[in-house]
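Example S7 (structure tokens).
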């Protein structure tokens, strides 16, 4: 872990990308294995271990209910990654369809649709997600749905911009001339050529979704208990910041490192993909 963090600060671009991938892989491992790698049951109360500092038995200390902080971090990785991946995946799917359609068909309906996307972009993602979850109620799927809504306009605008550039290319004009339908042009010729941009944007989006979900949980609008959440850990530790700072520090460090890892991963992917020539025909 120390070598990964050191690579963030002083390493080469390749080292930073490797460190980011290692941290993302570690978070995925915790999310997939959960209780199998956690030293304790993260939901087990222990009245004899309330607010114990970091020690050999509890590496990151315990919380006001005697629960092991490290075990809660491991358990909370699942919620963070599920929320991040699923919300970004849903936003990507809907936003890509909107952007492709608006870019290919154009006209007044596409203009109205894109103005609606612009209107959604005016609202900060956290404010929009707060409004949606407050209206729908607090639950895992409502949080995912709220975050997905915040990502739709971003992907739609990005994809439409790329499509407007690509549709003037010769291979697209040739496809139309040969009688290809709009569906084939979009999915066979245009979509593969915007996949690089979508991959980079999705990497950024997952980190942003994790940060927004943590913010919602900190404000009491995130995933409800007993589900574990890094944002709620941060909030619970805030009340004990002066006597048990390790709770908030551990949760904040987990959020910071994972979000930073996805940001550096997206930067690295962008550099790698930018070095490749954009294909001049359908597919990659």
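Recovered sequence:
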């Amino acid at each position: 872990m120390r070598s990964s963090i050191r690579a963030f600060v002083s390493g080469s671009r390749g080292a930073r990308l490797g460190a980011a991938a290692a941290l993302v892989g570690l978070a995925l491992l915790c999310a997939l294995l959960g209780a199998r790698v956690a030293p304790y049951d993260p939901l087990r109360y222990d009245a004899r271990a309330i607010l114990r500092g970091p020690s050999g038995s509890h590496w990151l200390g315990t919380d006001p209910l005697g629960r092991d902080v490290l075990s809660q971090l491991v358990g909370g990785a699942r919620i963070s990654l599920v929320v991040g991946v699923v919300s970004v995946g849903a936003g990507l799917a809907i936003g890509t369809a909107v952007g492709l359609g608006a870019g290919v068909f154009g006209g007044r309906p596409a203009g109205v649709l894109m103005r609606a996307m612009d209107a959604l972009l005016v609202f900060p993602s956290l404010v929009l997600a707060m409004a949606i979850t407050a209206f729908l109620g607090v639950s895992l799927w409502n949080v995912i749905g709220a975050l997905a809504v915040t990502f739709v306009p971003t992907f739609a605008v990005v994809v439409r911009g790329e499509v407007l550039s690509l549709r003037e290319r010769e291979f697209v004009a040739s496809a139309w001339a040969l009688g290809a339908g709009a569906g084939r042009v979009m999915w066979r010729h245009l979509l593969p050529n915007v996949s690089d941009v979508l991959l980079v944007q999705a990497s950024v989006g997952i980190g942003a979704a994790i940060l927004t979900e943590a913010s919602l949980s900190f404000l009491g609008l995130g995933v409800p208990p007993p589900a574990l959440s890094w944002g709620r850990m941060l909030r619970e530790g805030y009340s004990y910041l002066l006597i048990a700072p390790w709770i908030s520090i551990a949760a904040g460090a987990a959020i910071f490192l994972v979000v930073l890892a996805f940001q550096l991963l997206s930067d690295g992917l962008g550099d790698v993909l930018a070095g490749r020539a954009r294909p001049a025909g359908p597919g990659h």
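Notes on this example. The longest helix spans residues 69-105.
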